[in-house]
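Hi R.,

Here's the chain you asked about this morning:
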Amino acid sequence: MVWYLQLLWGAIALTSFYAVFKSMVYNLHMFQLDGYRTSTHLRWMGKNAWHYLTDLTVLVLSFTALCKNDRLMAFGAAALLVSLFGLIVSNKGRRQKKPLVYTARVKRLIVTFLVLEAALFGVSIRLLTTANKNLSFLPLGLCSALVPVLILLANLINKPMEKGVNLRYTLEAKRMLASCPDLETVGITGSYGKTGVKFYLYTILRAWTDTLVTPESYNTPMGIVKTVRASLRSYHKIFLCEMGAKWVGDIKELCDIVHPKHGVITALGDQHLESFGSVENIIKTKYELADALPENGRLYVNWDNERIRENPPKHVFIKYGFHADADYRCSDFTVTPQGSQFKVHAPDGSVTDFETKLLGKHNVLNITGAIAVANGFGMPLDEMRLYVRRIEAVPHRMQLIDKGGCTIIDDAFNSNPAGCAAALGTLSQMDGLRVLVTPGMVELGEKEAELNREFGRQAAESCDKIFLIGEKQTAPIAEGVRDKGFPEKDLYIYEDFGEAMKKVYAIGSEKRKIILLENDLPDNY
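And here is the predicted structure, written out as tokens:
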């Protein structure tokens, strides 16, 4: 190999190391957000094929190593070097809402990935010492170009080990739960509302008895296992366990770990249709909780939810909601400057007045569900009044934030059709310049466009100004907004959330601005 090709090889090797690092962090981050599911991540890669154009360029140019003409080889190698810089740039400076978490699993994945990379680099070094020196460019280029593929391969290699680790931790959690025979576990699931019900119930119950709760949005097998292993104590009497699902069988898997005695089903909706495939699968999966309860277990269901009324569970259940047939019926709901007021009618005929700092009918509905469950454990409704007043908004779920010259309603956690409608309903009742900022709803499968279009129609009737984030993603919302004859001058479309908010804050208004932040897409959108 002539001297200038050796120089290029060295430059490409150094650049490739950095490109591999940047690409590894980005692709691991996306893979983590996709739940380490290869099928889910491959779908994401297909939807974001444009991101891999640079990788493809590097891959193609790597094959210039097959050329035996030194001058042509030098040209190809130089082009490969430029492409590697492009790969670095394409993975740099991305705004991260939730950065890559370097869990033990991620660290093991990195080790296996680096072993695969080292093998490729070793082949390149080996070729440098043979008569086929020019071929050394090929594995060197592949080191960078194949990062997305090698991460999936590393995950496949690690799969037996990960299953073993998860099994060990799961068995330990099961043993700990079994050692607490008096512990009553409450499984809480639903297409939406489960985190709210969980934390509202925890605020009420922890004043009554020793209660353990899964933190934040911990609702996966390993999240629940981690909670049990780290926090369960012999004195705990109640365990509030949030149960999330994206696939059929997910709730059953969680029930097999914690064996819930009681359950709450907050809603059956269109969320995660992309992975579930059908509404029937959503219903089947959520009702896996009802199927797991013992005969003497109490099951609470949101009777305001139409799908639950149309498809009631087989297990005997207790109804809560505003519906006239609810066992725990909420009535006389009013919004005040301090929050909300309402009454709860209990099965024994008693009626109790409640106040909460939270806004929105759906928040009051979730509080009613929490009241019903707490009453089932023997806590009188009168004793709950103080603790209901103390309930704080769950972060990013209709959280009210005073920003001086404006009020922000932060409902950015994870939007769904029912949640959007409820948030817009709350916004429409507030006095001021009503502003919506949203990137729309996702993971709704074939219904996504139509549901976003309907969201746009609802927004047009509730808002004075609408800011959409991402022109392509929000096109159906814009169609719905325009269908209602919403003024074009009050409809704004931005690609960046930060730029949109600058404009929102800059808008002059004699009225106080009320800004609803509806949904915030994760980094893999």
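One quick note: The chain has a mean pLDDT of 87.

Cheers,
M.
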